[in-house]
Each structure stands twice: as structure tokens, then as C-alpha cells.
Amino acid sequence: MDQFMDRFLVIKAKWSGKTERILGFKPYTFATINPKTGTITNEWSYDAISSVDVSIDDKSEFTINMLGLKKRTSLKLRHRYRAEVLQALARSRAAFAMERKTKNKAVLAKLTPFNAHVESFILSGDDQSVQCELLPCVLEVGVDAVYQTGGSSDRFPYFELTQIQSLDVAMDDPSVLAIRIADITQVFHIDSPNDIIRAILESAISHDMILPVTKDSSAGILHSKQMHYTSVDPDSVLVLYDVQYPTGQEGVDNGFIVLTDTLIVEQDMTRLTTFVQPLTKIYEITRLVMSYRIF
């Protein structure tokens, strides 16, 4: 038990009933443990995790979805302080990914770049109508993630391969590519979607992952799922902060950070959503030593 970095007593829900288990996180694997005997009942690599879902109705419930050799596995658990468990899981996965990056520096140095445009939204005109604009960016496919450089403010969002739910190409416009993660979609326009999809799938296969690729939705449907349209229920907003975002020109943009019970949402001064991520992706908050205002 000493090799576990974090342990939580959870309730495991399955078809045959509910049982108590200890959910423990090691440097390379996580496991469920019988609390009475201390024996490990199941153990998985962090690589196996395909997504983590949280229940909207039950604030204590979450599900860890994993890819198996023959079928998908889902581990449905409950804990009174769900956020603490998910943060510990995110920290462990991040440490595992960083360790893997250290071992694969030579491979990581060979990121495969693809020029693209990312959809962004602004208020335009006297009627303050919302318009979509395309901003140039670069998508880089690495061994464990797809990185986006450039865009609205030259920040660097990325998509971990283990968390990508699907790659969606518009059936009526093959230049439209949507990357979906945690039911949040980012839409890109790229001249060679088949090339970048092939690169992503090859990276995923190296982790024994098979990512679904769909081509049965129109461009309009994919646009409607863009993260800009992620609904933020006012009743679910926990807190809103005035913040400044760094830009690529060594300046700052004013905006807001909105925290809900499941999401962290970036909004500009007009309250348009510019970026969304599930809270489960946050594994660490670091404050800059030279300035207490920067984190």
C-alpha cells in the first residue's frame, strides 16, 4: 500500500449491487483495493483511460471509461468529495504523461505540424450580432496529444489522445474537422483533414487506442456543437472572476473566468465563450513567484 500516492474510500456501483473499494493511484497505474483484506482487485494503466464522465444528477458520482482488448470497461464510482478524487486522478495522469514525455523526448521533438484555421466568435456591428471568424493556427500531432498553437491569443490548448472522444469530418465540407473531448467540440478548417487524422490515429495506435472517426454530420451540425455554444446554466455558476489573458503581442486581453460545478469557461469582455475545458483536466495551479497576480 506504500506505493500508492493517493487513496480514497469509494462506493463501486455495478449491476450486482454496491461495494466499498479503495481507489488508489500509483505512479504508472491505478487500482481498486478490497478495504477489508488490502488486496488489489483490479489494476489499470493510465493509458487505458479514454474519458472521465461526471454525473449531473448525482454530485458524488463519476465514471472512468477505459479501452479494453475485447470491450470497453466503465468503472462507476461514488465519493462524497468527487472533485478531490478527480483532481488526484488528473495529477497522477499528468505526472505519468510527463514521465512518458521525458522518456520520449526524441519522438516528441518530431511533432508533425498541419496549417489550419480555428473558429472564433466576436460581436460585430451596431446590432451586436455574433459572427464567426477564422484565425490561422497550427495543429501539431505528438505521441500523446494534439497541440494547437496560435488562434485568438496564441495560447496553447491541447487535446490528449486518451481524452479525445471522436474526430468528426463534415460530410458536405471535408475541410471542416471537429475534435471532441468531454462532449466539448473545437472546430478547425484544414485543407488536408485525412492527413492529420491519419497522423492522430497512428499516434493513438501506439497507445493501443482506436479513436472513432465520423463523417455522417453536416458542417452546420458540427458548427452548432462548437465550444462557443456550450451552455452555462446560471444556477451552476459557482464563481466569476475578472481576469487578463496574455496575447501573442506581449499584451493582455480582459475577460472572465467562469467556474461551474463541471467546467472552467473563458469568456471575453462581451461574455462570449472563447474556451471551455472540463474541471477534471485541471491537475495543478501554479502561481508565478515574481508576481502574485499571475498564475
Automatic annotation (TrEMBL):
GO biological process entries: endosome organization; receptor-mediated endocytosis; regulation of early endosome to late endosome transport
Alphabetized InterPro entries for the sequence: GRV2/DNAJC13 (IPR044978), GRV2/DNAJC13_N (IPR045802)
Protein name: DnaJ homologue subfamily C GRV2/DNAJC13 N-terminal domain-containing protein
Organism per entry: Aphanomyces euteiches
Domain DnaJ homologue subfamily C GRV2/DNAJC13 N-terminal: 7-288
GO cellular component, one term: endosome membrane
